[in-house]
Amino acid sequence: MADTEGRSCPLTYRYTPESLCREPAQVSEDVLYIVGGLYGNAFALDEIEVMVRAEERHGHRVKLVFNGDFNWFNADDTLFREINSRILDHTAILGNVDYELSVPNAGAGCGCAYPEYVDQGVVERSNQMMGRLQVVADRHPDIQKKLSLLPRYRCLIFGGLKVLVLHGDPESLAGWGLAHESIASGSEEKLAYWFRATGANLIACTHTCLPVIWSGKVDEKQRIVANNGAAGMGNLRADSRGLVTRIGFTSPFMEPLAAIARPGLHVSLMPVAYDIDAWLAQFDRLWPEGSPAAVSYRRRLTDGTHLVPEGIIFPSFR
């Protein structure tokens, strides 16, 4: 296996920030749920649909947008079809996993474009997982065709705000420029450039697996980055719940784990309290002890990450 597999970024993943919001689409709903990193977890998808129905009972019209990597652990024919069939009924964009299932790039491996600080063992196991999932996907050419037609990003006009929904960052489908690690280390100049180039008021992303919300002013306008981490895995310390990004003109019906609120706008990371025991039973059947996914992800499914809610909002909006 080439050393660059899983770390390199295929040219087909790249785009220019200036091109991302040239043709924005109008949204009529008053709440957006941005769902990134479902990773083939049908129980998380069940719970998200429950959350949407609860919003609707509170009088909120909800638009579901899936921003990539809805496939990953679903290395099973039945589960693969279920996940993709359910999600393709909604607005969706490609993540690197979905892209490599529909149009594999030679030498891309998982297409994750992992930075150097990610352990090589993680990279190699992800490439192995992708190889297994591609075998499953090849048995479903109709799904592959539908995936190949999905865009890599979407720009939405939401109540006068320009919301850019992408997977990685404004330069690459698998970019890490909006990762928790990047924002925590201070990347205001790059963020300012991306907001100016795209004209976006809010960028909603995922891909990098750790949640973060950033808020600041660029050219005297309030701008926000919301990275939900993962909808289908735990995101915080001792917490197995997934997260989705909720953008709305009204406050959410339940307590968010982290949020930025200003008059007329609420941007929240909402917990997805799916049936973890049922999911673990399915995960262990698909990925038994010692398998690449079990080694890389089993503990995260049960224990979450090292983060606490206070550590995911930047710079100082609590």
Q: Can you describe what's shown?
A:
Helix 3 crosses helix 5. The protein starts with 24 loop residues before the first strand and ends with a strand. Helices cover 31% and strands 21% of the residues. The strands form 2 sheets. A 7-stranded mixed sheet has the order 1-5-6-7-9-8-13. It is built from 9 helices and 13 strands. It has a single domain, classed as Metallo-dependent phosphatases (Purple Acid Phosphatase, chain A, domain 2). With 318 residues, it is an alpha/beta fold. Helix 1 links the parallel strand 2 and strand 3.
Summarize the structure.
With 318 residues, the protein is an alpha/beta fold.
Low-pLDDT residue intervals, each spanning 5 or more residues: none
Output the structural class: alpha/beta
Give the number of helices.
Answer: 9
CATH superfamily: Metallo-dependent phosphatases
Distance separating the two termini = 45 Å
- Residue share in helix: 25-40%
pLDDT averaged residue by residue: 94
Tertiary shape: globular
Largest sheet: 7 strands, mixed
Q: Proportion of β residues?
A: 15-25%
Question: Layout of SSEs?
Answer:
Layout: E1 25-26, E2 31-35, H1 42-57, E3 62-67, H2 77-87, E4 91-93, H3 96-102, H4 120-137, H5 141-148, E5 153-158, E6 161-166, H6 180-184, H7 188-198, E7 202-205, E8 212-218, E9 221-227, E10 242-248, E11 258-262, E12 265-272, H8 276-286, H9 292-303, E13 313-314
Parallel strand pairs: 1-5, 2-3, 3-4, 6-7, 7-9, 8-13
Antiparallel strand pairs: 2-10, 5-6, 8-9, 10-12, 11-12
